[in-house]
Amino acid sequence: MTRLKTLLAAAALAGGLTAAPAMAEDLRIGLITPPPHQWSKSAEVIAKRIDEESKGRIKLLVFPSGQLGNEAQMLQQLQTGALDFAFMTLGEFANRDPSYGIFLAPYLVDDAAGAQKLLKGEVAHKLTDDVKKFGLKGLGWGMAGMRQIVMAGDVTDVGGLKGKKIRTIPFAQELDFWTKLGAAPTPMPLPALYDAFANGQVDGMQIDFEGTWNSKYYDHAGTIIHSNHMMFPMLAVASGRKWQAMAPEDQAMVEKIMTEEINNIVSAYGRIDQEYLDKLKGTDVPIRDADRAYFGPAIDAWYEEWRSKTPLLVELEAEAAKD
To answer: What residue ranges define each of the domains in the chain, with the CATH number in brackets?
Structure first.
């Protein structure tokens, strides 16, 4: 009888262990954008959807504003598995493989709709797959608004940019664009930009209308140049180590949600750019339009150099030229 009781108790314990719900898993996503930015808002939507579809089993914790470090630090964390996901600008990838910088080609597209077409194209797909060489899993391309120029002083033509310290992201194609214009590209983290602009450490910035409004850079601006001169892609990535450790059904669920919401980001930016431009028109800062001709021969010189350095740019230009 004693042996029977022992066996029954063991069976009950085993059954209880089997029936116990799986423990919730906390995953983290890092971004450099502040909470009001569309990337950060979309990351919160992704977190909510993952929580709902996993019935609370998977929690995605969102860390905006560079809370987990700059992008170089976040990339290291992704590679070691200390960070699970990130929305990354192209700087750290382009510094390791210049082909990732080709999306910054000036006047490659006219607007967010043109950017959306290229970010779903063959070249973009190839570069998504290639992030595995960095120890990552590519989940798809998003974007921020088209690039504009915000300056502290009154700038009426391209000559007003010469010698000016322009905040940029530190990768070669963007730095070279400003160098060819005779400006002084000045990389710095996004969270430091407001104070640097306010106290004159930088004379201006390459930014979008959304960031200009939400971060109130217009408070210290003398000119906003509406140029749409570059798109600004974002690549959503997962840590390769953490991705391999996830169950296949969880991989499928997360990838589906990420892909859908990242596509929503890209689709939204035509509207977002216009909404924030309209808000900025309500300030006292003059807004001046600029097209490719505004920048003079610098753009042709940029293409001549980067077509030879990154032949994939020629393929991307051909995609952009298709109807």
So the answer is: 22-321 (3.40.190.170)
